[in-house]
Structure formats: C-alpha cells, structure tokens
Specification:
Fumarylacetoacetase-like_C; Fumarylacetoacetate hydrolase, domain 2; about 30% strand; alpha+beta; about 15% helix
Length: about 220
C-alpha cells in the first residue's frame, strides 16, 4: 500500500482551521465557523519523528488511501488508508504581518520542517477515530489535551467537503484540526539551547522533536 509512504510521495497536505470550538474561541472568534476553513501546506514541510523543527530567526491526521472527487459523506471512510499524528507549526509573527497587510500567509505555515509527523497508523488499528485523546507538551509543560470527539466537523464530512473543492489523491494528508492550548514553542533560556516538543495519540503513538533556530546558508 503506497499510502504508508505518504511522506515520500503524497502531493498535498490539506489542513482544517478552527475545527475545535474551544480553539476557535482562544483564537479570538466568537464560535467555530459554520463551514470548514481550509489551507494547504507543502509536503517539504514534513519532518519525521525524532527530527528537528527549524524556526526562522526572530501542531490528528487522516491519510487518504483511495483518491476521489465529489465523494459522498456516506462512503468517505472507505477512502481512508490510515492515520497519523501531525503538529501544524505556524510562524505567528510572519502570519500576523501578512494578515495586517491583507496578504496570503502560506509562508507562515509552509516553512520546511513545519509539519512534524508520526509514522503511518493502519486504519485497522483505529476502530474509533472520533474517540481519541490528543496531547502535546512543550518541555515538561502539558499545553494541549483534547479529544477528537470535540471536532466541529467530523472526518466523513471533511473528506466529502474537501473532495468537492479539490480532487483527493492517494497519499494526501488531511489535518483535521487542533484542540485548544496553542502557544509559542520558540527558544527560551528556561529550556536551554533548544525546546523539545512531545506529543501523542494515547494508546497509539507518540513523537518527539527538537525546536531549534534555523541557520541560513550564505
């Protein structure tokens, strides 16, 4: 199954913003949007478990196994090959600057290493994808601890919705949203030379990444 190698050959990462009510509120919205808010991330932003997230100086995932267009919500789960845990990193300073100027902010989400990712989890290992505990720590501090059952838009709806906008292909990644608790993971003297991010899906997988400052080559 080629979908197991989604990091190597997948063509796109589709992410859903503000898909948890509490997260939407912490980002300043009165409530979660009625329709899913989508954005894309480039595949070179992947970094595997144990790798480093490189910050410029100054975040439950679905893996598509069978492509399709205009997929019916009733059959959308048949298009899933498996799952993974991803951390959707954002350069908030770049995003805020772009938003203030009324410009797109793809660069704030699409930097190399800005999609830390776990190994592939077979669909058969996740009988209840809407009953999973997601957690994330920055250093020893627990920042996020939520459940996929709190998603505003569930997985079948999201797959159907996205497929009516763009064709889904084998190996594509659908990031279904993040629970509340987002915050900075930049260098801080309290952490030493770098910050360590750990995250997991309880009972299924956990990952560890170093967050470092990127050194640009001349």
């Amino acid at each position: 199954m080629r979908a197991k190698q989604f990091v190597e050959f997948g063509k796109k990462i589709i992410a859903v913003g503000k898909n948890y009510e509490a997260h939407a509120r912490e980002m300043g919205a009165a409530s979660a949007p009625k329709d899913p808010v989508l954005f894309l991330k480039p595949t070179p932003s992947y970094v595997r478990n144990g790798g480093s997230v490189l910050l410029p100086p100054g975040v439950g995932v679905v893996v598509i196994g069978k492509g399709g267009k205009d997929i019916a919500e009733s059959t959308s789960m048949d298009h899933i090959a498996g799952y993974a845990l991803a951390i959707d990193m954002t350069a908030r300073n770049l995003q805020a600057k772009a938003k203030k100027a009324g410009l797109p902010w793809a660069h704030a989400k699409g930097l190399d290493t800005f999609t830390p990712i776990s190994d592939f989890i077979p669909k058969s290992a996740v009988p209840s994808p809407h009953d999973l505990n997601l957690w994330l720590k920055v250093g020893d501090e627990l920042r996020q601890n939520g459940y996929t059952g709190d998603m505003v838009h569930n997985i079948p709806f999201l797959i159907s919705y996205v497929s009516r906008i763009m064709t889904l292909e084998e190996g594509d990644l659908l990031i279904t949203g993040t629970p509340e608790g987002v915050g900075p993971a930049a260098y801080d003297s309290a952490f030493g030379e770098f910050v360590v991010l750990t995250a997991g899906i309880t009972g299924l997988t956990d990952v560890r990444f170093r967050v470092e400052t990127r050194v640009y080559q001349a």
